[in-house]
């Protein structure tokens, strides 16, 4: 049993898989179905090469529910054995024993998490609705186990801590405090109410997520006339044609309701009415007053979170969530956000003024003049970029081949950490799109596996994320990590090179940063491995890795034209560098508006919140520009309503970026992002240590001092 891990991380999207600590079963009752599960591959230790691999090719979805019942029963029995141990509590017989408990549930969770995120079709949504409450109750059964808590308390208060390592002290301290935060000290009636709240929340989280998936699947903007494709690059038109063919309309073109399809259409289409239609369809997901509208669900989630926080002795949900983070309290997050917000809004005003000038100049007749609206922002931003910097990102895209960029990421990993990537053989995958590489170290020793699932498809969540199928650990029986990166790029046709945008390339490196965080892990206990760090620290390593994309070494060797093989011209590189802070008003405001709304929702004292009204009032209160939306509108804000994972935590991207900006300046001061001493320090103090040390100490050891937040303003051009 590990503490709830950060199992799936993303740029603009982080998903916690169903987790290891969420359901309750009576361990004294085992159904006939559960007895029959003993031979299920879902419960057996993984076999095969590399210390065992997930048996994707043998999974039968009809076995999931019974498998979870059996795995939960076994995990509960493991916990009961620890809690009732007649021997005095020690770190070894209690904490280490908990780290080793519930391994079948760990493996099952990893497999089902992929089905709920990457293969959410057929019976999976209904299975998730059944399984989620069971897992929620199991989590409560652990945290509310009085005998187990007393053993942890005895260790927490004992002299044994004096002889422990720093990592061991940190583990027991965190475990004890987590139990307290999760209700271990409540009375029986309050524990029962807490269990009910958590069960209700797990059901609502699942319903919220499934509604978002449904609105992404069922809403498509159809283009019937070829003339309506004016302005769109050939690659975008081709992807729209393939999307239409897949949906049975080969004579039309389809804009699907995902960011990867919406964004390029709004950037390049000259058809303003169609831009508005695509924009409204995307930003109104789950806010259409129909069966998949999420507003009622959000009201219930917020009310239950508020009640739970009060029950646990916290003023608000945000106070409860932030206690174990670097920020500690909501006030600290507001201080940082309020420092950046006015500068970002001022930059938006400048950006819109530049756009409006071009829009006015484009109007041949005064009657054709427009006022910049949200569906115009991306389109005119590209025009401004070209006018101000002579940079057309459409000229850059032919040099951004997905496969060459993947090779570039591998090369960077080799330079920074000594990793080598070799295609893995005889490893099953869960979809034909997925490929697997073995990762080895400088000495040729096996480090782990990296899975890559790059393409969009029906039943796959939108966005991009990293998932850990198995985390690194060394408790006598060493286990190597298995991680994956998941994206939603538009696949090419047969023999067609897949090209991606510059922003997508940044995202690709970001997610790979999460993967390297997991692969670099060198700790003993799984609860402290890889990305299992404070929520507002976990994005730091991944955001930092973005900086290696535009290093000369990567640009010249891996950003090559898909037809000629020529490297990205220095003239274009210079323009990219010069325009590095372009459109930072839009990027910062659309993100920060979501982060502020998140924090205000979770510090509000309202009993029943109308999400749409709250969003509107909050944006008006903070002075949100009319010309752009929040990055994630409340009805589809999956970060904060598909689980507790990023609730009152969306600020963390900005918090981590303050660390990132300062750390990046260290490499710039050294004269190279490949400086051997700095790379060594980055590995030793950030990537490999997991949660064995305080993240502030890790950063301090790397940088030689506390973070300088002014670097964040310099990075964004403010």
Task: Please name the defining characteristics of this protein.
EC 3.4.15.5, Neurolysin, domain 3, 6-stranded mixed sheet, 718 residues, carboxypeptidase activity, 3 domains, two-stranded antiparallel sheet, 52% helix, alpha+beta, 8 strands, disordered N terminus, zinc
Structure, described:
The protein is 52% helix and 6% strand. The protein is α+β, with helices and mostly antiparallel strands and 718 residues long. It folds into 3 domains: 8-213, Neurolysin, domain 3 (Orthogonal Bundle); 219-283, no CATH class; 398-578 and 653-715, Neurolysin, domain 3 (Orthogonal Bundle), CATH 1.10.1370. Strands 1-7-8-6-5-4 form a 6-stranded mixed sheet, sandwiched between helices. The protein has a two-stranded antiparallel ribbon with strand order 2-3. A hairpin with a 5-residue loop joins strand 5 (435-440) and strand 6 (446-455). Helix 14 (330-362) packs across helix 15 (377-389). Mean pLDDT is 93; it is low at 2-8 and 10-35. Residues 1-23 form the signal peptide. Belongs to the peptidase M3 family. One of its GO terms (cellular component) is cytosol. Its cofactor is Zn(2+).
């Amino acid at each position: 049993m590990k503490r709830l891990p950060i199992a799936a991380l993303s740029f603009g999207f982080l998903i916690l898989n169903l987790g290891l600590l969420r359901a309750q079963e009576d361990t004294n009752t085992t159904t006939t179905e559960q007895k029959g599960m003993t031979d299920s591959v879902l419960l057996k230790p993984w076999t095969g090469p590399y210390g065992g691999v997930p048996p994707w090719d043998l999974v039968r979805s009809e076995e999931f529910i019974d498998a979870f019942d059996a795995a939960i029963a076994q995990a509960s029995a493991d916990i009961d054995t620890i809690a009732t141990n007649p021997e005095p509590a020690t770190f070894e017989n209690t904490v280490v024993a908990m780290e080793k408990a519930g391994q079948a549930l760990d493996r099952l969770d990893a497999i089902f998490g992929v089905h709920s995120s990457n293969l959410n079709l057929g019976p999976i949504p209904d299975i998730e609705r059944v399984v989620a409450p069971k897992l929620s109750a199991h989590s409560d059964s652990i945290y509310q186990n009085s005998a187990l808590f007393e053993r942890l308390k005895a260790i927490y208060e004992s002299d044994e801590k004096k002889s422990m390592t720093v990592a061991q002290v940190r583990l027991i301290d965190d475990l004890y405090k987590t139990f307290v935060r999760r209700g271990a000290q409540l009375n029986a009636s309050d524990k029962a109410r807490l269990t009910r709240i958590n069960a209700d929340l797990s059901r609502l989280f699942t319903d919220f997520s499934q509604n978002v998936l449904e609105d992404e699947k069922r809403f498509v903007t159809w283009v019937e006339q070829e003339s309506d494709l004016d302005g769109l690059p050939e690659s975008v038109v081709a992807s729209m044609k393939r999307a239409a063919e897949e949906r049975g309309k080969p004579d039309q073109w389809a804009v699907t309701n995902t960011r990867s399809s919406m964004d390029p259409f709004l950037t390049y289409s000259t058809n303003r009415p169609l831009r508005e239609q695509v924009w409204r369809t995307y930003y109104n997901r789950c806010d259409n007053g129909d069966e998949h509208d999420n507003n009622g669900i959000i009201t219930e989630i917020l009310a239950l979170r508020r009640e739970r926080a009060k029950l646990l002795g916290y003023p608000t949900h945000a106070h409860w969530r932030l206690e174990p983070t670097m920020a500690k309290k909501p006030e600290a997050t507001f201080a940082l956000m309020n420092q950046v917000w006015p500068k970002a809004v001022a930059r938006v005003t400048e950006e819109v003024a530049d756009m409006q000038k071009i829009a006015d100049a484009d109007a041949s007749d005064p009657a054709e003049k427009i006022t910049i609206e949200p569906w115009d922002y991306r389109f005119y931003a590209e025009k401004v970029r070209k006018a101000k910097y002579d940079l057309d990102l459409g000229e850059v895209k032919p040099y951004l081949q997905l496969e060459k960029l993947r090779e570039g990421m591998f090369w960077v990993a080799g330079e920074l950490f000594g990793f080598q990537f070799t295609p893995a053989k005889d490893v099953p995958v869960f979809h034909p799109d997925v490929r697997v590489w073995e990762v080895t170290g400088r000495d040729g020793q096996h480090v782990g596996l990296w899975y890559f699932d790059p393409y969009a498809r029906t039943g796959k969540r939108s966005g991009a994320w990293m998932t850990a199928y198995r985390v690194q650990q060394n408790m006598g029986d060493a286990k190597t990590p298995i991680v994956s990166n998941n994206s939603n790029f538009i696949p090419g046709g047969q023999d067609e090179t897949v090209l991606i945008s510059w922003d997508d390339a940044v995202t690709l490196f970001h997610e790979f940063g999460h993967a390297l965080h997991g692969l670099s892990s060198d700790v003993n206990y799984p609860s402290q491995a890889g990305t299992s760090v404070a929520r507002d620290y976990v994005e730091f390593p991944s955001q930092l890795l973005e900086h290696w994309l535009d290093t000369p070494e990567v640009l010249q060797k891996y950003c090559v034209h898909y037809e000629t093989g020529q490297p990205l011209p220095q003239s274009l590189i210079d323009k990219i560098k010069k325009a590095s802070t372009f459109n930072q008003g839009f990027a910062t405001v659309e993100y920060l508006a979501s982060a502020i709304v998140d924090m205000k929702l979770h510090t509000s004292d309202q009993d029943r919140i109308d999400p749409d009204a709250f969003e509107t009032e909050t944006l008006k209160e903070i002075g949100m520009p009319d010309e752009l939306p929040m990055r994630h509108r409340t009805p589809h804000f999956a970060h904060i309503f598909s689980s507790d994972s990023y609730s009152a935590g969306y600020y963390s991207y900005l918090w981590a970026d303050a660390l990132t900006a300062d750390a990046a300046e260290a490499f710039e001061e050294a004269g190279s992002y490949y400086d051997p001493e700095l790379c060594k320090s980055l590995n030793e103090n950030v990537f490999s240590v997991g949660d064995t040390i305080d993240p502030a100490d890790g950063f301090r050891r790397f940088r030689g001092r506390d973070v300088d937040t002014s670097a964040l303003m310099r990075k964004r051009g403010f």
